[in-house]
């Protein structure tokens, strides 16, 4: 009896723990497009939007034109460890990006990037994108790719609830954020990396042939590896069974490519299922589309703005009520009354000290000035767009005028700007 009670207690405890974890998951969905079969996503870099190829096994790298556009003018020489471990890339310089964001879940300050040049730059320019983004950018989230529906999900701190624990396998996150895990090829264990630059299903290096022993040999060509548009001679093999986690992908094309440092699985794997990469816990989930049910992500309605208080708003209200940065490059104020927007964070002592003072000002200037506050930790894409690097960051603007920026918690300056600029 006691044994049964203990088992029941463990089951209940585990269920509660799993439910608690799932209820804490913050998930964000973003659309992506494909460029020559590769995934292209929109990023906000130093406040400028650009399109980047997702290259989990590579390095973040920008075209010189885009680097100039976002205001980069200081470079250092690259070293051997700066270069990708999986393929060669032509880059002689590196630099620091101030802010880069993908939605609100993925954000980085001072991210190191390479500057593309030569043939690599020409190929990326031909694709019509601004550069490539590496796996290291996603190190703080769980990245889920749904190729069938053209969606990328970023979730914190756990996997999305629609990915089952039974589809999980252990892996390694190599230097640079490169996912590595084990699959079976004809029942033989093979360690592979997940390379989103590769458009095929599986590419093996020549020394792996001994273990695989492919049974059909036809000569052909495959696209060049890395950022080269050249083709290289290779041998393509059919008739192999690939097992990934709990799925069997039979009779899929396997490519033998001597240019690779390690065997890779590419985007062809995602023709059959979704992949989730938990970078922090080194876990990989792979699940068929047929067994995946993605619940609709509910968008919260816009809040109602109240006079005489500091209204807590999100990016959605900022775009709706203040400035639609997705439609206008210049700050075009949409309101009909002066506003003050306070960007803050819980860890920012000056922000917390200033907050009650802002509430007093909101009461004092009720019906004359509308007060807002935005949590900088939760609205990272917006902060990147506005190039916010220090808090508290105060934006003050009235209809028909350019915004006035004040950094710090000097309330007397805020009052002076209200009296001498916003209300005149």
TrEMBL record:
<dbReference type="Pfam" id="PF00085">
    <property type="entry name" value="Thioredoxin"/>
</dbReference>
<feature type="domain" description="Thioredoxin">
    <location>
        <begin position="299"/>
        <end position="424"/>
    </location>
</feature>
<dbReference type="InterPro" id="IPR021109">
    <property type="entry name" value="Peptidase_aspartic_dom_sf"/>
</dbReference>
<dbReference type="GO" id="GO:0045454">
    <property type="term" value="P:cell redox homeostasis"/>
</dbReference>
<dbReference type="InterPro" id="IPR036249">
    <property type="entry name" value="Thioredoxin-like_sf"/>
</dbReference>
<keyword id="KW-0676">Redox-active center</keyword>
<protein>
    <submittedName>
        <fullName>Redoxin domain-containing protein</fullName>
    </submittedName>
</protein>
<dbReference type="InterPro" id="IPR013766">
    <property type="entry name" value="Thioredoxin_domain"/>
</dbReference>
<dbReference type="InterPro" id="IPR017937">
    <property type="entry name" value="Thioredoxin_CS"/>
</dbReference>
